[in-house]
Amino acid sequence: MSKKVLLFLNQGFEELEAAAFTDVLGWSRQLGDEPVELVTAGMRPEIAGNWNFVVKPQIQFDEIKTDEYDALAIPGGFYDAGYYDDAFDERFLRLIRDFNDAGKFIATVCVAAIPLGESGILKGRNATTYDLNDKLRIDQLRDYGARIKRKKVVVDKNIITSIGPSTAISVAFTLLEMLTSKKNLRTVKKHMRFR
């Protein structure tokens, strides 16, 4: 049975970070040994990325059934583009808690770790986030009780966090391996010409 990932897009999301998930999981579905289905969702009928790429999610928030998914993928985004308006919405924070309580994978890129912290699930857990701008977001994550690790990608049990857009493909590959297998990851990397 194939795995299923919910890609949650908040207003002002970073397009490159979202594209890493769509491409890596799409390649697995198309040419991998183990297909992975990806479903996009959000709070709005149309979601504008930070660079004005507008997306119509496949499903709306009220249609999400957590038990249908094996993982939650969350790209980061920009404060000025309204990212935290959606990311700090209590409904979204509850969704994060539901995935975590069920032991399902949660993969984040860059500042998408911040709503995880806001939800309370990073207390006492290893994590990282965007580390520039005087480490504002790192300090924020630490204030949530996370144990900050100085690595580009940090995995703590079911949670993946990372430092910025350049890590998006690594996060997507990490999630793919956790969902499927090393063999499938090698196959996908081969077809995507990463090896």
What would you say this structure looks like, in words?
The protein has a single domain, classed as 3-Layer(aba) Sandwich (Rossmann fold), CATH 3.40.50.880. It is built from seven helices and eleven strands. It has helices at residues 15-31, 83-87, 90-101, 113-119, 136-143, 168-179, 182-191, and strands at 3-8, 36-42, 47-48, 54-55, 59-60, 71-74, 105-108, 126-127, 147-148, 153-156, 159-162. Strands 5-2-1-6-7-11-10 form a seven-stranded mixed sheet, with helices on both faces. It is globular and about 40 Å long. The relative contact order is 0.18.
Form type: globular
Could you tell me the number of beta strands? Answer: 11
Largest sheet: 7 strands, mixed
Average of per-residue pLDDT values: 97
The low-confidence parts are none
Number of DSSP helical runs: 7
Helix content: 25-40%
Topology:
Elements: E1 3-8, H1 15-31, E2 36-42, E3 47-48, E4 54-55, E5 59-60, E6 71-74, H2 83-87, H3 90-101, E7 105-108, H4 113-119, E8 126-127, H5 136-143, E9 147-148, E10 153-156, E11 159-162, H6 168-179, H7 182-191
Parallel strand pairs: 1-2, 1-6, 2-5, 6-7, 7-11, 8-9
Antiparallel strand pairs: 3-4, 10-11
Helix pairs in contact: 1-6, 1-7, 3-4, 6-7
Summarize the structure.
The chain is α/β, with parallel strands linked by helices and 195 residues long. Strands 5-2-1-6-7-11-10 form a seven-stranded mixed β-sheet, with helices on both faces. The chain has a two-stranded antiparallel sheet with strand order 3-4. A two-stranded parallel sheet has the order 8-9.
